[in-house]
Design brief:
The complex is a heterodimer of chains A (about 200) and B (about 80).
Chain A: H1 5-8, H2 14-20, H3 25-34, H4 39-46, E1 52-58, H5 63-79, E2 82-88, H6 93-98, E3 110-114, E4 120-125, H7 129-145, H8 161-177, H9 179-194
Parallel strand pairs in A: 1-2
Antiparallel strand pairs in A: 1-3, 3-4
Chain B: E1 5-12, H1 18-32, E2 36-44, E3 49-53, E4 56-60, H2 61-64, H3 70-81
Parallel strand pairs in B: 1-2
Antiparallel strand pairs in B: 1-3, 3-4
The chains are: A alpha+beta (about 200), B alpha+beta (about 80).
């Protein structure tokens, strides 16, 4: 399976992807509005010597897609240097099989960066490791601060419904509080890949 | 008829596990009917897919891997109903 211009062009543009979403569109739009790109990061993307093609695997039900695709969308829109085409994971298994997380998981989003001749510059999967780490630490702190939530490893269905709802609220708050850090990490990692493009 | 046995299916709503959740719920409904007092679907996060009967965990993606075989889960529910 080869990604070339012909295959790449069959993907959806970012705007077309958003238009076909059947769920989470409001969350994606809100996340896009909240992306705060630094002048330095934007300048680095704008200074790319050639446009970079970015193939994306996504699905609208996926939380990591809803969180991270808008970062790429904003980078593409604000820099004018990234050509984004989005493929639905479940309709493009040949591409998915090539970019399995740890060689076995169909994690999304996947962002694959190609130069103008479709030589791969690198790829990015799901979310930054630093974000997973920080959120795991914050999750432990939430459980430590709220004994009523029980063990972080216990099945959540053992909690009374009102307690479960409170836990859900605390976890959502934590994700919200770490979103700025998460977006910055996504930008940092994507910048590192995109700037591999040769002059 | 044995009443009072409840199944809970906790699934990651951020992971697109709804089809597997609904398939399993349907299989349990058709197999056990009114012998179950209820089937509760709990939307959660973090890659969770867990099935419990009366508070006893009978399948966990984290523990057992995957969504579990429908037949094996039905056997576990049947064993619980027999107690």
């Amino acid at each position: 399976m080869t990604i070339d211009r012909a295959r790449f062009d069959t993907g959806l543009t970012y705007e077309a992807y958003k238009a076909q979403m059947t769920r989470n569109r409001d969350r994606l739009d809100e996340n896009e509005r909240r992306v705060d790109l630094s002048k330095e990061d934007l300048a680095a993307f704008r200074a790319l010597p050639r446009p970079v093609n970015v193939l994306v695997l996504a699905e609208d039900w996926c939380g990591d897609v809803v969180a991270n695709l808008p970062v790429l969308g904003r980078l593409a829109n604000d820099s004018g240097k990234l050509e984004v085409r989005i493929f639905l994971r479940d309709q493009n298994d040949d591409i998915m099989q090539r970019y399995l997380n740890k060689g076995q998981f169909k994690s999304i989003p996947v962002f694959v960066f190609f130069d103008v001749d479709f030589r791969e510059l690198g790829h990015w999967i799901e979310r930054p490791a630093a974000v997973t780490e920080v959120r795991a630490k914050r999750r432990k702190q939430i459980f430590a601060a709220h004994p009523e939530f029980g063990s972080p490893d216990a099945p959540v269905d053992q909690l009374a419904e009102d307690v479960r709802v409170r836990l859900q609220g605390e976890l959502a708050k934590m994700r919200d509080e770490t979103a700025k850090f998460a977006n910055a990490e996504v930008v940092r990692e994507l910048r590192e890949i995109a700037t591999r493009v040769a002059a | 008829m044995t009443a009072g046995h409840k199944v809970k299916i906790t699934y990651c709503a951020d992971c697109g596990y709804e089809p597997q959740t609904l398939d399993l719920a349907k299989a349990l409904m058709l197999e056990f009917g009114a012998r179950l007092s209820g089937i509760e679907l709990i939307p959660w996060e973090g890659g969770t897919f867990e099935v419990s009967v009366d508070g006893e965990l009978i399948h966990s993606m984290a523990r057992n891997g995957g969504f579990g075989e429908s037949a094996a889960i039905k056997d576990a529910v049947r064993a619980r109903l027999a107690t």
